[in-house]
């Protein structure tokens, strides 16, 4: 009933849970005193026909009601405080983990599920810490307190009530295992639905283009139906469990009242004592009954927390010690790597220790992008040597590594905001002059100057820019990052000739100072490089200048010739049209 791992998150906020229990308990004491005073008044009225110190007693009752109300308010304040820091801490931990996992967090959790867990999942935990946990402790203390008080009044009745109380937690325990399984399924289906929804919304234009939206509509409906079914099962389970708890609570209270009425009838207690028994019988059960209600919400948070912990438990930490300065050398020796069992790179060896352009070429699926990702430190589980300045990449602190390398991919991420905010992502110390300078280099300044300069709005994923403009903006951002090593992975694919020329010119301007790794299927762009590395089926099958490779490397020659044929084909067709 208590999740120890979740509780360990409380740390110094534990005091808010205890304070809440204390305030609830003091509230109960105030209520008992009120009932005792009223019971005394009832006795007086019945036996003497008048109430002594009536006014003073009424004032005391009113003051006690106000005090009880104040305690209730404090309970809400502490409840909020108990959950507040934990929510922030959990969200922060998840965020840090996703940063560490980099772009392969998707292997563990989908983006949609992640968003759901970080928002709704964490929110549910507020109830766990702020309500369920304090209620759990209070519902142990309250019946004992009442038993001690009412035991003095009518022992038999108090004992019967006390014995009935554990029936509620028993019903909670009984339903717990089933609820756990059901809620885990609920979160799974909820995640699937969100994932599909997000995917469909992202691909809506494509779906419309292929007229596949009606098909996806049916799929979504089916997914939603599955989620509806499991939600209904959860609600039925909660309703049944609450009905059982109600039966125990009200049945138990009724039993207590019957016993006290009987005791009054046989004369073993007076009218005031009977009144006390009747007024306080329900109080035995109310805390546990409330615990039962919170339990269901807490179980939901619990199920979400299991998914959160699964993500947090993935063993990746940036506890690496090594820092790295300017990179002068890249050494790869006997490198092998596979994403799963299938080996993608086999026994690759190469060494780069001078600035210049280094092409990586090969047919589709030969492992070019995988090399780029390994050089970015995205994957640690490689075999062999993969080192900068003779330091293994998987031992270098990720943040230190990211200060020295910049990668530009074919589909760069442009953030919603302004041109300025996107450029500041590359280097937060850039001033306006630096930003305008790089925008001029990529031939974008004239365009943005005509809108709102550096404050020109950029829509989500750069939707208000052309493909070429997006790519040039990402190159401007990369230039501001100003690192010793640059990796361009198909950075000019699918963009207009003008943008391609601008980008290639800028890349070649870097060759005297930077180590530039250029992955490109357009072999014309690596004709003037210092050295080209040819990959085939994950193996490095040759490396040299373009001219030498054309002479000696059949695979390279084939790649160049095939490329030329495709370009000529494109040229012929366009001439015809
Ligand atoms: N995240 C991944 N998980 C599993 N397998 C992957 C992953 N990324 C790539 N692969 C596999 O690794 C192999 C090499 O992929 P890689 O992207 O490195 O090739 P590439 O030479 O860059 O191809 P292309 O020129 O088509 O971009 C392929 O068989 C691919 O299916």
UniProtKB/TrEMBL annotation:
Membrane topology listed for this record: Multi-pass membrane protein
Query: Which Gene3D superfamilies has this protein been placed in?
Result: ABC transporter type 1, transmembrane domain, P-loop containing nucleotide triphosphate hydrolases
Q: Which GO terms describe its cellular component?
A: plasma membrane
One Pfam assignment: ABC_membrane
Q: Which PROSITE patterns match?
A: ABC_TM1F, ABC_TRANSPORTER_1, ABC_TRANSPORTER_2
Residues annotated as transmembrane = 21-42, 54-71, 136-153, 159-179, 247-265
Molecular function (GO) terms for this protein are: ABC-type oligopeptide transporter activity; ATP binding; ATP hydrolysis activity
Question: Where does the record say this protein resides?
Answer: Cell membrane
Q: Does the keyword Nuclease apply?
A: no
SUPFAM superfamilies in the cross-refs: ABC transporter transmembrane region (SSF90123), P-loop containing nucleoside triphosphate hydrolases (SSF52540)
Q: Which PANTHER family match?
A: ATP-BINDING CASSETTE SUB-FAMILY B MEMBER 10, MITOCHONDRIAL, ATP-DEPENDENT PERMEASE MDL1, MITOCHONDRIAL
What protein am I looking at? ABC-type transport system involved in cytochrome bd biosynthesis, ATPase and permease components
